[in-house]
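Need a sequence for this fold. Nothing fancy.
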């Protein structure tokens, strides 16, 4: 149990080992700013923690004052729930140490670490963790919701490679959850979001990846939408586990040197194919694409794995106004293709598009009940519909576009709740739908054990089950 903290702010500051920010302090506005510029919340106190003990002190202080608690890992969230409005924000950004065991192929990762820091540390040893696709994403939020990215086909989700987690519970107790210790909590952490405690350290299994990978990008214009999507439908299931693929619908071709100038800013369809084996294998892997449907342009190159992990950073800059919805579909059926082709060009901002993630390979080898992941383990696609702009008027128009695409795809969805990490609006019905009734009820029972008062409710919230 944690040492009791005084309800007096000055006494709390003197006992706290990290840094405290209150309104008016230097650094307060930076500390309270999340990735999504559409969020403008003002905590009464920000506790930038230097240890699990600091987290426990901050929780106790919030309880003594009757204040709401939020937890900031990387703060890369469309919902902006990392930052409470009028409560205490527990800021983990100083807990960003990565300790790699190259022989055991594992890493211990602080709860405030970003993917960029994780990737840099693991790549020093020719290793990589299964993580996301934007380098300023926080490891904590990504992992607790599932964690899909460039290694999903090869290694599964982030949670499929989580070996243990150090957790500060709502009552201030610090525990390590694993398959052998607090196994119910360990199960819930792997997909149940930030509902069960503050994770101050993750332990991951790593894989021999990089430092160089093979990358291919194939781009077609909006006029070739149906043909490009049918190609993707036939091609993606043929890929080996030692690969990765992402389909970008309504993507604007970037003003990059590898894009012919006449196509800069043009909206269309991009098929991104990554190979982790020899370059010749990748060349053979992608050859059917151009044979079936010649693209407007293509780009094939070796690339550092760290560069792959940063590929979409410019499409998601810090401070942008952002909104998203997602759903799962079993296949790119003719009906789904019609909806995508009809609506792909409807966004205004060049940063708004639909990244479609293929969940296959190792992902499908994990039992449905092995983790709390909110979604099927059969091969399927997660369609993420993103609206983003620095201009308020454009953003509002693209938010309406996101909602229209979601509504049009919903009749064909296998899980209309979608992925909990892709929920700008995590209402109770949507969260329950994402997990399914049985898994949600199991999570609610575990919540009642570890957080019966729902202290951790600024998330895709799972309310604690009522006690008998």
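Here you go.
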């Amino acid at each position: 149990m944690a040492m009791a903290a005084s309800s007096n702010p000055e006494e709390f500051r003197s006992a706290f080992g990290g840094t405290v920010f209150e309104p008016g302090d230097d650094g307060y506005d930076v500390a309270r700013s999340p990735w999504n510029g559409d969020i403008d919340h003002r905590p009464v106190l920000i506790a930038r923690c230097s240890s699990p003990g600091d987290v426990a002190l901050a929780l106790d202080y919030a309880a003594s004052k009757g204040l709401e608690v939020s937890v900031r890992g990387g703060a890369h969230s469309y919902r902006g729930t990392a930052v409470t409005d009028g409560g205490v924000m527990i800021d983990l950004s100083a807990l960003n140490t990565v300790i790699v065991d190259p022989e055991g192929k594992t890493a211990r990762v602080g709860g405030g670490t970003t993917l960029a820091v994780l990737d840099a540390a693991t790549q020093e040893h020719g290793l990589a963790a299964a993580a996301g696709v934007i380098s300023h994403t926080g490891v904590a939020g990504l992992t607790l919701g599932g964690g899909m990215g460039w290694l999903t086909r090869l290694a599964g989700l982030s949670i499929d490679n989580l070996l243990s987690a150090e957790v500060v519970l709502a009552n201030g107790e610090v525990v390590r959850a694993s398959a052998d210790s607090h196994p119910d909590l360990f199960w819930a952490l792997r997909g149940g979001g930030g509902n069960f405690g503050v994770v101050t350290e993750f332990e991951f299994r790593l894989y021999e990846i990089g430092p160089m990978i093979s990358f291919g990008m194939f781009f077609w214009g909006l006029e070739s939408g149906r043909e490009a999507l049918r190609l993707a439908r036939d091609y993606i299931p043929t890929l080996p586990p030692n690969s990765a693929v992402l389909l970008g619908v309504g993507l604007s071709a970037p003003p990059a040197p590898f894009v012919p100038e006449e196509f800069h800013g043009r909206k269309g369809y991009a098929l991104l194919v990554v190979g982790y084996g020899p370059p010749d294998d990748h060349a053979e892997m992608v050859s059917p694409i151009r044979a079936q449907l010649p693209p407007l342009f293509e780009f094939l190159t070796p690339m550092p794995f760290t560069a792959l992990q940063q590929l979409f950073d410019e499409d998601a800059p810090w401070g942008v106004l952002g909104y998203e919805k997602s759903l799962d579909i079993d296949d790119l059926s003719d009906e789904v293709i019609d909806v995508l082709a009809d609506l792909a060009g409807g966004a205004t901002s060049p940063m708004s598009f639909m990244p479609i993630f293929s969940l296959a390979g190792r992902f499908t080898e994990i039992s449905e009940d092995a983790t709390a992941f909110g979604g099927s383990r059969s091969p399927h696609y997660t369609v993420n519909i993103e609206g983003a702009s620095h201009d308020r008027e454009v953003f509002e128009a693209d938010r309406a576009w996101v909602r229209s695409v979601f509504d049009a795809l919903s009749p064909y969805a296998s899980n209309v709740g979608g992925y909990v990490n892709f929920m700008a609006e995590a209402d109770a019905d949507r969260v329950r739908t994402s997990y399914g009734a049985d898994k949600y009820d199991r999570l609610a029972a575990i919540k009642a054990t570890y957080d019966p008062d729902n202290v951790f409710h600024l998330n895709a919230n799972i309310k604690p089950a009522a006690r008998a």
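For context: The chain has a mean pLDDT of 96.
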